[in-house]
């Protein structure tokens, strides 16, 4: 019998790559999404697969699934700061009510649930690099709080189901991940810089560009999530690439990669934008025998080729 897995957020960037991975591993995959930040085209190639079906549904509403389920991956949630500032209430609801629905479903189906948490639970971190033991530094009432606190609540309720109901749970704390199928206009720094380079616009640096991030290629992230799901570890695990870079140096790398002749321009740093971020992946290395394999140069080249191949209409589609 094929193992059956429900993946929420299936039409999004990470969700669609996870659907691909589990279909290719021989699972029967049920994808679920309401398209609030996702795109049907991310799943078109799976349409004819006998091992994939899609249900259009908002996970904050009661979820009814006919199949038995072995696993659930809860990836539905806006993930770009611009998205969750635009739809703050939906962001809070999908992390709280949506997660509660999925926990109930997992309990009813006796399925193992893995939730997509985030480095944002560490907020603007005072510990560097960030280990899983760090409790974080989040402004609950700041504009980013809608995402950070939804994800923190998501972790708490997931652990409560684990402790109280004995549910099998997994928690991945994902650090900035990139690759093909990100939305060109989602406002995250990689699509933002690449879109600007392709349209011949100046690259917008928020703040002075000294803030750092550590970018993980999507295939590495998916491998880490796959191994975590199949592990027996119920507590949070960081998955990300520890190779840290300032946003200014990163913009220079994009200028070299794309050959753009545009310059860097500076805009205000968004409120509570974390000044530094780098995963400590000691735990993932030990527990999952996992570490990232794809260098930033390789991953960025693949991602740029993907954005370059998009139509003019997509390149100039304005969302904000
Ligand atoms: P994405 O916006 O591309 O995908 C999210 C998907 O969830 C979209 O298809 C959207 O339509 C769907 N969705 C949102 N609310 C929904 C709802 N109520 N019901 C059903 N579907 C809903 O974002 P992504 O980068 O693929 O992120 C996926 C998950 O991973 C999110 O939970 C995000 O918080 C987490 N994450 C991502 C990153 C990253 O760097 N990409 C980092 C940390 C955490
Ligand atoms: N950023 C930037 N210019 C942009 C978009 C983002 O300088 O056009 C910065 C942003 O302020 C942050 C970093 O790039 O410091 C990463 O932003 P992103 O939105 O990708 O994700 P975050 O890690 O902040 O969730």
From TrEMBL:
Main localization (coarse): Golgi
Location within or outside the cell: Golgi apparatus, Golgi stack membrane
Pathway: Nucleotide-sugar biosynthesis; UDP-alpha-D-xylose biosynthesis; UDP-alpha-D-xylose from UDP-alpha-D-glucuronate: step 1/1
SUPFAM superfamilies in UniProt: NAD(P)-binding Rossmann-fold domains
Pfam family, one: GDP_Man_Dehyd
Origin superkingdom: Bacteria
Membrane topology field: Single-pass type II membrane protein
Family note: Belongs to the NAD(P)-dependent epimerase/dehydratase family. UDP-glucuronic acid decarboxylase subfamily.
Cofactor requirement: NAD(+)
InterPro entries membership: NAD(P)-bd_dom, NAD(P)-bd_dom_sf, UXS-like
Top EC class of this enzyme: lyase
Name of the protein this chain belongs to: UDP-glucuronate decarboxylase
Documented EC number(s): 4.1.1.35
UniProt keyword terms in alphabetical order: Decarboxylase, Golgi apparatus, Lyase, Membrane, NAD, Signal-anchor, Transmembrane, Transmembrane helix
Domain named NAD(P)-binding: residues: 6-301
